[in-house]
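TL;DR need structure tokens for one chain.
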Amino acid sequence: MTIVAAPHSIVIYSDLLDPFAHVAVHRLWTVREGLGLSEVVRFDHHAFPLELFNGPGTRIGSDSEIPAVGTLEPDAGWQLWNAPDWHYPNTVLLAFEAVHAAKHQSLQMSELLDRALRRAFWADSRSIGHHNVIIEIASSIQGLDVDALGVRLAAGSSRADVFSDYRNASSDDVAMSPHLFLPDGSSIINPGIAVHWEGEWAKGFPVIDHDEPAVYHTALRAAANDRWIDRDAS
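>> reply
TL;DR here they are.
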């Protein structure tokens, strides 16, 4: 299967507990706004559930990455885990379900919930795998029907969507978190960033070899396609 985004959208495969994905989503939002494309291009989020590949999430993994990755986009919102260790979300499958469930209202509601969940985890140390926390975060989003979202979560209506994403993530079509797919059939893996690890994962630390944020401008212009308006030329 070839993954191609719908016109005027970007498909994003990523994990909620992946700091590189947090950078990518923050840059997508920031650049989209800067280009005046907030009402033109939508983000279609899909799960790259690292916990199904590697086992439950671990605090030492995220804490070891923040000092290096956080410097790429300080405004994205970061802190080392600042809540009790037993509140750390070792699974976020229900949060993935919530992002899919919100798509039944609109892609806009889904992308808003996705971003709110990421910021709640990375900036506020909230346990985003917990049902009540997800509902509290959803309640802060203007226009999101929280009751309808809760009904879908209670029914498990979007669980199959998450495991469908997992099958795609396990295939050759999706390489890693984050991986972006554009309407022209092209895709971008960990956009603009080249990285290597010093030491073992969660014991060592990532080293950023290259960072080229301009790739986000290219991706968003490509997604906008015929509706792109160069504001600087107007």
